[in-house]
């Protein structure tokens, strides 16, 4: 019982402990539940506790289920109302956001306006304060500005008075300002600046003069050009008077002191602004462009201060430096005429200024100083022109340069500078001009000769005929009588070359103008240059055309005809030069034209080229020869290649009708001799080792065709059998072999009346050896035939006798 009670008591105690633990679990924070659970696991009733815990969980689940079932509808209603409230809350939020944005926008403009108002009020206060301070400072600034204006306008004495008034009256009122302290510190410097301002003006003047020397020189040269044109029109006006008038017009002396209070523009630098004027308007004098008052002022001030010598030395030293700069030509001066013009303008401008200073001041510069500068300038200018003109290859540029140098010399001569050395140098440039002309005309002649068709000029009307005769001096009464259309004997390059020679003479004449040369010197220069044109330039051009590889016989014939007519026109060129120089050809020192020699040499070269060309054509035909040296058939007509060759020769010599008789005859004889020699070489060449009598018969027919051509007289002027003699060697050799007339040949050899006098035994033996080999190898049974054996013995006998003749001849 007691055990049962004890067990029951223990069970109740355990149940109470489990209940306590469950209450602690339900009421204790999760983070502190660890010790409670540990007490469960420390006890022995773990299983029972778990049952108790499961029971408690089921009870709570039932209570929760009851409660949920009881409050479910209210929960659903609450959720529905909450969703409605959320939509309204979102609308309210949007309205609040929109209201806030509008408020911020309106407030931003208000803030900006307030900030601007703040800045305006601040500026207003600053402006008021500034105006008050400026009212005190403005008189000081006005006085200082007046001082600067007076210094700029070179009013030195009023500037000193203004400076004193500023220092003692105005600056003490505003001395606490920093700019006033700067002014006070600058007052000694300003006094020193006033002292040196005249020298500063002089430096500006010198710098401006250096920059504008080309403008001054351009004006002076333009005025000299106008005066020269006027002198050419009014020849009766004395030249010295003209120069004095020119110089008088140029010199315009300015006042030594300018008292105007108005500010200057470019007068401060010594250069007046002059717009470019039209050619028909009056050109201002060179000194109209220059204000010399800075020089005069500075000279006056330094004279008063007793330092005139210092000023003179400084001025001359600076001008010498500028002279060296002016005389240094640009590296590309030779490329254009503007480069030379600018160079000359600067030199002229420099010496125009110095000449004016010489005549308007006393002692600043003297004649010895000017002469020294001019000697240096003259030597450097001539050296520069020699160097740069040597690079020029355009005759037009050289001619323009010559005219520019003449104008340059004439301009400086007006001012009393000696310019003889410049004209001496122009004579050197004249030689270079002639060389550039020769190079230019070499191209002109080359183009004329290359573009010519080398055919007689056809004319179909009287107008065309007169046009050609007007271009070239040609007279032929027979041609004039012929009806139109008709042809001149020469091609178009004859009048073109003749006119280009005249153009060359005109170009030479242009250079001699204004060089102060006598008519004899001009005539001599033109003739020498024309001789160079004929003997070197034109001769080389003709020789190049004649030596061209593709030149034809027709072109060569026409060249001979053309040069013949050009040779005849040389006397008209002599008359042309005489008319433009007014120097008679009978004058002792007159140079003769060498055109006749030039055209003769060209014609001879063309003749030689015709002979060579004919021989080459003959060789080309002979290359077509195709002889069957072993044939036994006897032909009845000449070879086709030879027939074509004879036809070519006939048509070629028909073109030679306009050639001089000797040229055509020489060409014909040369062609026949070359043909005969080539045929002989063809017959005897080493490659032909054997030949038959039939082959000789065919060769004989070809030679007869050549003889027939010679007898037909392709070129008039030959005696009856003269042209046939070219083939006499071949004829006698072939007759000897075809007629087999060895007994006559061997019996009469060496006698003047020998029938076969032109047959050389060596040639006969060579040909006989070729036939002997043929007889031996004609067929294998030849040795059994009596006739063949006799013929072979006869050939051997003749060959032996020929060798004897050759041996006796050599011995």
TrEMBL record:
Chain positions covered by the region annotation Disordered: 261-280
Coiled-coil segments: 82-109
UniProt cross-references to Pfam families, sorted A to Z: EXOC6_Sec15_N, Sec15_C
Keyword tRNA-binding found: no
Alphabetic keyword roster: Coiled coil, Exocytosis, Transport
Exocyst complex component EXOC6/Sec15 N-terminal domain segment(s): 52-221
The keyword Coiled coil is annotated on this UniProt entry: yes
Entry GO terms, CC: exocyst; plasma membrane
Location of the Exocyst complex subunit EXOC6/Sec15 C-terminal domain: 421-770
Gene Ontology terms describing biological process: Golgi to plasma membrane transport; intracellular protein transport; vesicle tethering involved in exocytosis
InterPro entries in alphabetical order: EXOC6/Sec15 (IPR007225), EXOC6/Sec15_C (IPR046361), EXOC6/Sec15_C_dom1 (IPR042045), EXOC6_Sec15_N (IPR048359), EXOC6PINT-1/Sec15/Tip20_C_dom2 (IPR042044)
Domain of life, source organism: Eukaryota
Family: Belongs to the SEC15 family.
Protein function: Component of the exocyst complex involved in the docking of exocytic vesicles with fusion sites on the plasma membrane.
Protein name: Exocyst complex component
Gene designation per UniProt: EXOC6B
């Amino acid at each position: 019982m007691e055990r049962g009670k004890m067990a029951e008591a223990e069970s109740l105690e355990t149940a109470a402990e489990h209940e306590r633990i469950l209450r602690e679990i339900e009421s204790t924070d999760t983070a502190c539940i660890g010790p409670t659970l540990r007490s469960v696991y420390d006890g022995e009733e773990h299983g029972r506790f778990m049952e108790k815990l499961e029971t408690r969980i089921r009870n709570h689940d039932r209570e929760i289920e009851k409660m949920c079932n009881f409050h479910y509808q209210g929960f659903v209603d609450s959720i529905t109302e909450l969703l409605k409230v959320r939509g309204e809350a979102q609308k309210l939020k949007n309205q609040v956001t929109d209201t806030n944005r509008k408020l911020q926008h309106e407030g931003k403009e208000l803030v900006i306006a307030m900030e601007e108002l703040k800045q305006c009020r601040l500026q207003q206060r600053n402006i008021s304060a500034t105006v008050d301070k400026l009212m005190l400072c403005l008189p000081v600034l006005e006085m200082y500005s007046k001082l600067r204006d007076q210094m700029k306008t070179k009013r030195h004495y009023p500037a000193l008075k203004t400076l004193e008034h500023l220092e003692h009256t105005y600056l003490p009122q505003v001395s606490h300002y920093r700019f006033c302290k700067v002014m006070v510190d600058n007052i000694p410097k300003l006094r020193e600046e006033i002292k040196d301002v005249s020298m500063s003006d002089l430096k500006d003047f010198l710098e401006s003069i250096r920059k504008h020397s080309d403008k001054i020189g351009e004006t002076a040269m333009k005025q000299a050009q106008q005066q020269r044109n006027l002198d050419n029109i009014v020849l009766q006006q004395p030249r010295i008077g003209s120069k004095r008038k020119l110089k008088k017009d140029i010199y315009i002396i300015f006042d030594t002191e300018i008292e105007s209070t108005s500010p200057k523009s470019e007068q401060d630098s010594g250069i007046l602004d002059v717009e470019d004027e039209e050619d028909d308007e009056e050109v201002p004098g060179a000194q109209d462009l220059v204000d010399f008052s800075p020089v005069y002022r500075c000279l006056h001030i330094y004279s008063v201060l007793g330092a005139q010598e210092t000023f003179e030395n400084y001025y001359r030293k600076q001008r010498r430096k500028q002279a060296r700069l002016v005389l240094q030509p640009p590296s590309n001066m030779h490329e254009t005429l503007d480069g030379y013009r600018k160079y000359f303008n600067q030199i002229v401008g420099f010496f125009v200024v110095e000449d004016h200073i010489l005549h308007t001041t006393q002692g600043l510069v003297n004649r010895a100083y000017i002469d020294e500068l001019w000697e240096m300038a003259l030597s450097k200018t001539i050296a520069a022109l020699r160097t740069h003109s040597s690079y020029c290859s355009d005759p037009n540029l050289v001619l323009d340069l010559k005219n520019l140098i003449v104008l340059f010399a004439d301009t400086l001569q007006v001012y009393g500078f000696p310019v003889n050395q410049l004209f001496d140098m122009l004579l050197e440039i004249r030689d270079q001009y002639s060389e550039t002309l020769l190079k230019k005309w070499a191209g002109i002649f080359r183009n004329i000769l290359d573009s010519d068709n080398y055919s007689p000029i056809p004319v179909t009307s009287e107008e065309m005929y007169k046009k050609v005769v007007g271009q070239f001096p040609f007279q032929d009464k027979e041609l004039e009588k012929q009806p139109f259309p008709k042809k001149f004997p020469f091609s178009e390059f004859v009048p073109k070359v003749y006119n280009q020679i005249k153009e060359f003479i005109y170009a030479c004449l242009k250079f001699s103008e204004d060089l102060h040369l006598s008519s004899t010197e001009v005539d001599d220069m033109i003739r020498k240059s024309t001789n160079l044109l004929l003997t070197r330039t034109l001769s080389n051009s003709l020789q190049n055309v004649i030596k061209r590889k593709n030149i034809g016989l027709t072109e060569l014939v026409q060249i001979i005809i053309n040069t013949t007519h050009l040779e005849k026109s040389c006397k008209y060129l002599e008359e042309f030069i005489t008319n433009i120089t007014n120097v008679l050809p009978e004058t002792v020192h007159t140079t003769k034209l060498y055109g006749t020699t030039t055209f003769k040499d060209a014609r001879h070269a063309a003749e030689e080229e015709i002979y060579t060309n004919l021989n080459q054509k003959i060789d080309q035909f002979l290359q077509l020869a195709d002889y069957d040296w072993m044939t036994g058939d006897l032909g009845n007509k000449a070879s086709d290649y030879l027939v074509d060759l004879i036809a070519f020769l006939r048509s070629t010599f028909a073109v030679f009708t306009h050639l001089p008789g000797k040229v055509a005859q020489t060409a014909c004889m040369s062609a026949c001799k070359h043909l005969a020699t080539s045929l002989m070489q063809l017959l005897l060449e080493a490659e032909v080792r054997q030949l038959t009598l039939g082959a000789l018969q065919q060769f004989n027919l070809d030679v007869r065709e050549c003889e027939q051509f010679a007898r037909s007289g392709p070129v008039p002027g030959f005696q009856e059998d003269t042209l046939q003699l070219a083939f006499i060697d071949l004829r006698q050799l072939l007759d000897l072999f075809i007629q087999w007339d060895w007994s006559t040949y061997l019996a009469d050899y060496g006698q003047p009346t020998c029938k076969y006098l032109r047959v050389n035994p060596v040639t006969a033996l060579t040909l006989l050896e070729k036939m002997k080999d043929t007889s031996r190898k004609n067929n294998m049974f030849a040795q059994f035939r009596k006739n063949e054996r006799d013929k072979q013995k006869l050939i051997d006998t003749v060959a032996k006798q020929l060798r004897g003749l050759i041996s006796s001849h050599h011995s």
